[in-house]
Amino acid sequence: MDDREQSAISRRGVLVGGAATVAVTATPAADAQGVRPAPQPVTMPLTLEVNGKRRTIEVDTRTTLLDALREKLELTGTKKGCDHGQCGACTVLVDGKRINSCLTLAVMHQGDKVTTIEGLGTPDKLHPMQAAFVRHDGYQCGYCTPGQICSAVAVLGEIKAGVPSHVTADLTARPGPTNDEMRERMSGNICRCGAYSNILEAMADVAGVKA
Amino acid sequence: MRPFTYERATKPADAAAAAVRNPGAKFIAGGTNLLDLMKLEIEVPRHLIDVNGLGLDTIQPTAEGGLRIGALVTNTDLAADQRVRRDYGVLSRAIVAGASGQLRNKATTAGNLLQRTRCPYFYDTNQACNKRRPGSGCAAIGGYSRQLAVIGSSSACIATYPGDMAVAMRALDAAVETVAPNGAVRTIPIADFHRLPGDTPHIETALAPGELIIAVTLPRPLGGTHVYRKVRDRASYAFALVSVAAVIQRDGSGRVAVGGIAHKPWRVEAAERRLAEGSKVVAATLLAGAKPTQDNAFKVPLVERTLAAALHDARNMA
After folding, report:
1. CATH: 3.30.40.10, 2.60.40.10, 1.20.85.10, 3.10.20.30. Which one for A40-119?
2. Which residue among A98, A155, A184 sits closest to B236, beta carbon to beta carbon?
3. Residues of chain B with pLDDT under 50
4. Which residue of A has its CA nearest to B237?
5. Rounded CA gap, B173 and B234, in Å?
6. A36: pLDDT confidence band, cut at 50, 70 and 90?
7. What is the pTM (predicted TM-score) of this model?
């Protein structure tokens, strides 16, 4: 056990002890409705499979999957942008599906398989989408890139699986990896450097079509 | 975010019972709306009941020839279902017109029905809002109201229901199936599910405390041409200014429901009976008694034009 774990456990001990003391001796703080005492922080054990590795951590119930990945598991490739599901920088794959990791609680993912940008490929062995982003210059500052790449990988999977989108002309036909389809499906990932056209070229390259 | 305790429920009736046993409890499924509001401390649940383990994630045919959609079926899976795409196209179209791919992968059928308003004064905890803090007033009235309601509003609230899926479900006459904490199951017609604000805008649905949505049923297919036309400030990933769900038959009769203009999906059956007279007459009937603000008066002609476009699409697709 390293020092950090040691201190984390002692701190939890203090919190639990502190909660009990408050309940006995002090006037509890009122909650938003001004009636009942505010609950104390609660932690829970959690096991998930992140990038192929089983990881067990202890988290405050309030911890988002994003914060668990970054702060507890030290996988800082996944980025925090808006923290409200609007920008897509925190996109990861859970059981193969892309989601905003900022809008889901870590404790809701007991046993789930999470893939982050670190799990898609490595600097020595890039995922084809990572290599295509490099080849087509699909970024400038790079902050949104992990989310863009996770989303792009999932988008091609969704098109292959026949999931319709807002621009699919015929609901009963299979969609294809056209520019319009890829653009529409990437609308949950914002790039304020404006690398959109190069991101589209990278995706088209991986899909084997011309952007 | 305020601290809360957390449990995973395994049976629907147990989840409902847990909700009444724990004052201040909320169900959580996809969590994309609830967690957003918890971060802003607009929602402050003391206990969360995770309902993802209830197994309500399948779409089954009903004895009446319709479909029963489990409460936990995701927006992505519902929009992609072959039966929905073939027989209830307006529903697939409405779902893919909303949110982003990431959000649709998490958002559930039940949770999407319960999505809360996007009124900027509801979101700003420094502002008066009768929905967030009953009795505090409505800062939206006389405020920035471009997105807000033009009909069915009250002196207490001019918020809109923001979703797309429910607008299509209203046109399809879906029904919401629930279980109460005592285990009793009931069915609420979608028309009665969402409420108008009146004096109690904080009460948004017909659900009783602890009552849990278990499914949404669709009646047998209507046939006809299905259109969902949405007008918004961006081409993708934005809430509707106005949306129209339409199911139009070969003889020109049909159904229309409108989103983005009221506290609930807006459908007026008397307006539909006048479809043969054209979009101007239908829109005028739909919007009889409308009270737009200066900011959102544009929605009144926009409803008529969006309706005209939807009817045009339906004619071209038929």
Report:
1. 3.10.20.30
2. A184
3. none
4. A187
5. 29
6. low
7. 0.93
